[in-house]
Amino acid sequence: MSDWIEVCKLDEIPKGAGRTVRTADAVIALFRLSDDSVRAVENRCPHKGGPLAEGIVSGRDVLCPLHNQRIHLDTGEVAPPDSGCVRVFETRIEDDRVLLRVGA
Ligand code: FES
Questions:
Q1: Which CATH architecture has domain 2-103?
Q2: If you measure from the C-alpha of residue 98 to the centroid of ligand 1, how many angstroms do you get, rounded to a whole number?
């Protein structure tokens, strides 16, 4: 069972940057890419828990602010030579509203 919840307006996410929203079971980092699409991952780097929403967006990746590991925002996978994976959430945009899929 899953639901779509509205988490913010698109223009509340700075382009090329992140912001956080809290859901019932996680803190989520939202990123607005240069094409105005939005990606969402758990705001916890798989390396040592760095706050990914404070990282720098590079293309479709985010660079963790703590030790610069590169995490792909479509898959949540850490780029080699590092390894690991962060939980990814589906998003969609309706008008100017950003919706996030939560639950199983
Ligand atoms: S905590 Fe993210 S790279 Fe170390």
A1: 3-layer Sandwich (2.102)
A2: 27
67 Cα nearest atom in ligand 1: 3
The ranges assigned to domains in the chain are 2-103
Is this prediction's pTM over 0.90? yes
Q: What is the pLDDT of residue 103?
A: 79
pLDDT tens-digit readout, 12-48: 999 888 999 999 889 999 999 999 999 999 999 999 9
Strand segments, DSSP code E, in 1-104 are 2-9, 18-22, 27-32, 38-42, 56-58, 61-63, 70-72, 88-89, 91-94, 97-103
